[in-house]
Write a structure and sequence with these properties.
Layout (H helix, E strand, L loop, with lengths): L15 H4 L11 H11 L3 H10 L3 H13 L1 H9 L1 H8 L3 H18 L3 H24 L5 H29 L17 E5 L1 H4 L9 E7 L12 H17 L10 E2 L12 E3 H10 L3 H7 L3 E5 L1 H15 L6 H14 L22 H15 L11 H10 L5 H23 L12 H11 L4 H20 L24 H10 L4 H13 L8 H19 L4 H14 L4 H9 L4 H10 L1 H9 L4 H5 L10 H12 L5 H25 L4 H31 L6 E7 H4 L9 E8 L15 H17 L10 E2 L12 E3 H10 L3 H7 L3 E4 L2 H15 L5 H19 L14 H15 L11 H10 L5 H24 L11 H10 L5 H23 L3
Parallel strand pairs: 2-3, 2-4, 7-8, 7-9
Antiparallel strand pairs: 1-2, 1-5, 6-7, 6-10
């Protein structure tokens, strides 16, 4: 497999179909060709003949078969318009794209209304999206030509939308443009393209990042028209024209959150306010973002002038300490502790994961920031051009440039294939090997292994260059004489050293360190421990300096030392594994709950040192083996319960630490939490059953099963999830008495057994409670018996259960039972869920239940991600509603996972692809943030009181540049989700 596409664009005169140079690997799939044949069989004869003429080129057929097999989104585009496909396969792609864009722009200028503009732009986007995908998949265009084509499409769309809106305003008399054919000239509105759009590097399913400014002193507004409300309305209009979902889809998702303080500012900001902000408060990441800023629409001359005024903020004249400190601060914020083991391919994020696209961009941008002030030639936007200029100027070697450029192009192609599958803004490989293998085939590899080998090699190369970036001490002060760390805040050399390391409050840090060395901490009552710690202090300070907020890290480490009862072993482990110090500082600063666990049980640190810790997440089989090894030597039931609790807490600590460090996705963490809980449930079930039988015997033909409901059932657990369980049983009704020394009969036997089971989870031992157990989802809830026979369960679900109980049943999953009993229960559940239902009645019940929850819990706090309007509950209810109303005719919609249900619903045509995309993206965002919040916050999250560490971790989890941008994204997402919920369930 080639690492970069060959590019066949130079075959001028040849049709697109004749230029294909590579394609997906479809030999492994028998269904691809069949899908293609089935579709062709549905077409009119003239369409079949035209397509067959293009398919004489072997790779053309391979590419279409690959699209049919691997990309529902592209295959929908193919099937929607066979004439369009024929036109594309016969075209010159460069000329056709240019003509397509120009034709659409002329048509938009003449359009009578917004509806027609939306239709024209969306049809242009659909045709261009298919054309660009064909050129990418077929190796006709190299990947950077692909990104340039996507950018041209986006820029033209923004310009056309703005021109139409300004023409409309001129027709209403609110704007007086000197040139009616170009109303944007001199209008005072400036649209900056940011990020990949600014650099001409858009990815296949990219948002467009825009910042909109206006100059109130230089507009063509009519007299009496206020600039701010006018330009805010126009900006909102641009976003609406481009991203509102219609029958024809959408053009581009618009992201306006890179503007200054987006959670509290309007979508269009005055030029003076912007300049004042950047001069006063502009942050490092905003400097880096402005490297790629480009005036793309509106008053282009004013845009260039504004960028020139912002330039001193971005490009500092002197290579001073502040600039270097900024770079280290940026690197710190990107660098969570990442371990030394191999990257796990499954679930890896090719954008922000180790060795990913962002590390290459950071490698180039930070060196541009450092030197661009004195070397204007470094002020370039595209990443590969920046690498070229850095190499030409001897800032990096030609080898570094060539290797990073190859890796960048490879990773961008992988990113495109991931996004082409469903037109989703995703960068993460699937979590399971089978799905990764399908991505590999779509990419053109023969196997997952071949793809993984190439991917890991490129990631490793990027990591190698990234880790060397500004390594060592950039100010040349690393060779200072030995420092007396106990000297305190009066020692100027110590203060200078701490300042050099990045501490902003060196005197406070120096005082704290002196307290460690001389103070009365319980953990240091052993002289050996104190001596070991004093020897470790220089490395500890260096490690804390690598935390995201060094001063805060010192404070939380001090609090941790004060809480520590016995720490000799922990101090030894940290001193021998010094790169863990920054990770421990992150844990202590962002997740006090985990810090308390570590203070109580320092042995939890052992798991962080295990070389397997930062590799692939352990699967269910491996976890079961570890759990069995943990409990096998227990001498008593009490010790067994203690060991179970220790295993559960250690697992929570290790998974939680991986979430904080950014080395595992929220979905992987959810699955891991569920696997741990499931293993413990199964183990407790077996042990309690054996102990109970030793006392009370067994009943003839007895079976017991534990059904997981809620988050355990859906495998969407967090660190604080309780266990929603139902216990079902069966026995021989002819022989209802147990055969033990203390015989019990029938239902009474299983009620006592269930109470014993609950006690095993909830009894507080030296190691706390295992899990809180919630059995309210059993038949009749609290009023019903704690255990139900399978017959009464089936009868209740068929005759008495409310709609909300059937909604809950969509997540039911048997987690501990014999295979035969499990199959019987699953058949009952499936029979209930696939019953025919009245769609309107179910919609009414679901909407009523949502309103009742809102009345009880409230829905106005946007940081209450579960209960907020447009939050997790809305998405869960949509997925449950879709299953209940469609499973009778389409049982394949059923799944315990909300994300999978939404994917199934879109594939089966019962949920619009655009709505599925909104809901799936929202579910992932909420899931990512909820995992963090459940780890770090015991009460409700309050943004105004949240610490800086937590805000940074949350921003990273939400892939936002800062917390304000994240907050704006959450609010916007909740609005979109509530709109979908209302349309589906309330018909509005």
């Amino acid at each position: 497999m080639k690492l970069s596409a060959p590019g066949n664009a130079d075959k001028h005169g040849a049709t697109l179909a004749a230029r294909f140079a590579e394609g997906p690997h479809v030999a492994a799939s028998a269904t691809a060709e069949q899908r293609l044949r089935d579709w062709l069989a549905e077409l009119e004869p003239q369409h079949v003949a035209a397509i067959d003429a293009a398919l004489v080129h072997p790779l053309a057929r391979t590419i279409l078969a690959g699209i049919a097999e691997f990309s529902p989104y592209l295959f929908d585009l193919v099937r929607a318009d066979p004439e369009r496909l024929t036109r594309l396969l016969a075209c010159d792609p460069d000329a056709h794209l240019a003509s397509l864009i120009e034709t659409a722009r002329r048509a938009v200028m003449a359009a009578p209304d917004e509806a027609e503009v939306m239709r024209l732009l969306r049809r242009m986007k659909s045709e261009a999206a298919l054309l660009i995908a064909l050129c990418d998949i077929g190796g006709v265009w190299p990947v950077m030509r692909v990104t340039a084509a996507l950018t041209d499409l986006a820029v033209s769309s923004v310009q056309a939308a703005l021109q139409f809106l300004l023409r409309q305003e001129a027709a209403r008399g609110r704007l007086v443009p000197p040139n009616p054919d170009a109303p944007e000239e001199g209008c005072g509105l400036i649209v900056l393209a940011m990020g990949k759009m600014g650099a001409g590097e858009l990815n296949y399913s990219s948002d467009v990042d825009l910042i909109v400014f206006f100059d109130p002193e230089a507009t063509t507004l009519a007299d009496g028209i206020e600039p701010q409300p006018f330009f805010v309305r126009v900006t909102q209009g641009i976003a609406r024209l481009l991203q509102q979902r219609t029958y024809d889809g959408y053009v581009f998702r618009v992201d306006l959150r890179l503007r200054p303080d987006p959670s509290s500012t309007q979508v269009a900001i005055s030029r003076d306010a912007a300049l004042s902000y950047y001069e006063r408060e502009g942050r490092t990441w905003e400097r880096a973002a402005m490297i790629k800023a480009r005036a793309c629409a509106g008053d282009l001359r004013a845009g260039e002038a504004l960028l020139a005024e912002i330039a001193p903020f971005v490009w500092r004249k002197h290579l001073d300490f502040a600039a270097l400190a900024d770079v280290h601060d940026m690197k710190r914020q990107m660098q969570t502790y990442r371990g030394q083991t191999d990257v796990a391919v499954e679930g890896h994020n090719v954008k922000v994961g180790r060795g990913g696209i962002r590390e290459i961009e950071f490698f180039a941008q930070t060196q541009q920031l450092i030197a661009g002030g004195r070397h204007p030639e470094l002020r370039v936007r595209p990443t590969l051009v920046a690498l070229d200029v850095l190499a030409a100027s001897n800032w990096i070697t030609t080898q570094a440039r060539d290797e990073l450029a190859t890796a960048y192009e490879f990773l961008r192609r992988v990113e495109h294939r991931l996004q082409m599958i469903a037109d989703e803004q995703t960068h993460a490989l699937p979590d399971d090997k089978e799905a990764v293998e399908r991505v590999a085939w779509f990419f053109g590899c023969e196997s997952r292994e071949a793809f993984a080998r190439d991917l890991l090699r490129q990631l490793g190369i990027v990591q190698g260059h990234y880790e060397k970036l500004f390594e060592g001490d950039p100010t040349g002060t690393a060779s200072l004489p030995a420092i007396d760390y106990g000297a305190g805040p009066d020692d100027p050399r110590l203060l200078q050293h701490l300042t050099t390391l990045g501490f902003k409050k060196p005197a406070a840090a120096a005082q704290t360190v002196r307290d460690w060395i001389t103070g009365d901490y319980r953990v240091f009552r052993s002289e050996a421990t104190r001596s070991a710690f004093i020897e470790f202090v220089p490395a500890l300070i260096d490690g804390l300096a690598h935390a995201e907020e060094p001063d805060g890290a010192v404070v939380v480490f001090d609090q941790f030392l004060q809480a520590l009862q016995r720490g000799g072993r922990l101090i030894t482990l940290l001193s021998q594994n010094r790169d863990l110090v920054a990770l421990v500082a992150l844990v202590l600063g962002a997740a006090p709950r985990l810090g308390e666990m570590l203070a109580r049980q320092p042995q939890l640190m052992d798991g962080l040192i295990d070389p397997r810790f930062f590799g692939a997440m352990p699967d269910k089989q491996e976890l079961s083996a570890r759990l069995a090894a943990t409990v096998k030597d227990a001498d008593s039931y009490e010790e067994f319960l203690d060991r179970l609790r220790l295993f559960g807490q250690e697992s929570l600590f290790l998974i939680g630490t991986r979430i904080l460090s950014g080395t595992v996705s929220a979905q992987q963490a959810s699955t891991a939490f569920a696997d741990v809980a499931e293993g413990i449930v199964h183990t407790v079930h077996g042990l309690v059953a054996d102990r109970f039988a030793a006392q009370h015997g067994r009943i003839k033909g007895q079976e017991t099963a534990i059904i997981a409901m809620g988050r355990l059932g859906s495998r969407e657990m967090t660190a604080s999830s309780d266990l929603d369980l139902i216990l079902l049983y069966d026995f021989d009704g002819e022989h209802p008495d147990s055969d033990g020394p203390k015989s019990l009969q029938g239902a009474h036997y299983f009620a006592r057994f269930t109470q014993r089971l609950i006690s095993a989870f909830t009894t507080r031992t030296n190691y706390g409670v295992l899990y809180e157990i919630d059995m309210r989802l059993r038949p009749s809830g609290r009023a019903g018996p704690v255990a139900s026979s399978i017959a009464s369960f089936a009868d209740y679900q068929a005759q008495e259960a409310w709609t909300w109980e059937h909604m809950a049943l969509t997540r039911a999953r048997v987690v501990s039972a014999s295979p035969e009993f499990c199959a019987r229960i699953e058949a009952v559940i499936r029979d209930v869920l696939t019953r025919q239902r009245d769609r309107l009645a179910i919609a009414h019940d679901v909407a009523d239940m949502r309103r009742a929850i809102a009345q009880e819990k409230g829905e106005t706090d946007h940081w209450d991600l579960k209960y907020a309007a447009g939050g997790t509950i809305d998405i869960d209810f949509i997925a449950q509603y879709l299953q209940l109303v469609h499973a009778h005719e389409k049982p394949e919609i059923l799944d315990v996972s909300t994300l999978q249900v939404l994917e199934n619903a879109a594939r089966l045509g019962v949920l619009a692809q655009s709505e599925a995309e909104i809901l799936r993206a929202a579910a992932r965002l909420y899931h990512d943030l909820t995992q963090i919040l459940r780890l770090c916050v015991s009460e409700g999250f309050k943004a105004e009181t949240a610490g800086v560490d937590l805000q940074r971790v949350m921003a990273r989890a939400g892939d936002a540049p800062d917390f304000s941008s994240l907050e704006a994204r959450v609010k916007e997402t909740q609005g979109e989700v509530r709109r979908v919920f209302t349309a589906l369930l309330e018909g509005k």
